[in-house]
Amino acid sequence: MAAVTVRHISKSFGETIVLRDFDDVFGDGEFITLLGPSGCGKTTMLRIIAGFEKPTSGELYLDDRLVSGGKTFVPPEKRGIGMVFQSYAVWPHMNVFDNVAYPLSIRKTPKADLEASVNRALEIMHLTRYAQRFPNQLSGGQQQRVALARALVFAPRLLLLDEPVSNLDAKLRESMRFEIKEIQKKLGITVVYVTHDQTEAMAMSDRIILINCGVVQQSGTPEEIYNRPVNQFVADFLGKVEFLKGIAENGKILFPAMGGQALPYDGPRTGKVEAAIRPENFYFSPDGILRGTLETQYYLGDVDDCRVRIGDTLVRVIVNGYEYHRLQTGQAVRLGVRDMMVFADDGLLEEMLRIQT
Questions:
Q1: Do both 346 and 255 map to the same domain?
Q2: pLDDT digits 0-9 by tens, 289-320
Q3: Nearest alpha carbon to residue 94 among 131, 149, 129
Q4: Confidence bin at 2 (pLDDT 50/70/90)
Q5: C-beta separation of 252 from 263 below 8 A
Q6: Do 114 and 8 belong to one domain?
Q7: Percent of the chain that is helix, strand, coil (3-state, to 5)
Q8: N or C: which end of the chain has fewer CB within 10 A?
């Protein structure tokens, strides 16, 4: 296993700053996900850990060993790291066994040890029966397993994964998420995983580090970041959310655009606020405090995805799929709210959400 210590790392390409003062410690056996929109700096951070990029400033340690920083730079092949890329990068002219054996072959590992390690890696990845096949005889998911087996075969101290399932179809992508997590838990290795997919991050991570424009916005468990985001960008990027402008006063938040309706509020903010409510935290109830009209509903099997008009505001409400047959488009409804997050309305919401792309 390996701990990764990142001390105030920044990275620039010319005048463009892609990482700003990244400072964190990834613990032994921890599954860390670097999450964020395209171009936010997450892959650059992964490449710095791998040794494919040098930081402009700051230091990187693997365990207690300085590998990047100042005049010190340890090349990738001497860091003991396994890495899987989005493209898999399996050798088309080699069969599965030889693809997986490649890292050991270049290290001149004795034949008996090589065969034992490769067979163990193939077994872990359920590839034993495919050992003599070539990549063009494998499915995308099988090729991805080959890439993972090759990264694991030399027992790396650290495994880096750069969007390794993004090329798979939806069902296979979902199943591979859980396979990767189970392998990580079984082997007890440290994993740093890069993705822009919040569902992947939620399903797999011990801890998520959410980045935007090169700056870490928040670090925490999936539950912490989802339910207690530090700003509107985090709330919006990790899940679905409705932002409702209101005025907090006298133990409630008044929403002018919702016909002056209000929700109870006992928090510390006063004056102009933005209430952030996730669609699954609305629910239909005859005793609900908000009154509106059901404009549309979309039956998705497991859920009923609804739009409710409240005054001049259209809010999204996601409820159990069984509600679909109980509700009728155009009917008057009442909504309750299980939970909401409240931010100061500083006038920067549109800009904060715009910069994620």
A1: yes
A2: 999 999 999 999 999 999 999 999 999 999 99
A3: 131
A4: confident
A5: yes
A6: yes
A7: 30, 35, 35
A8: C
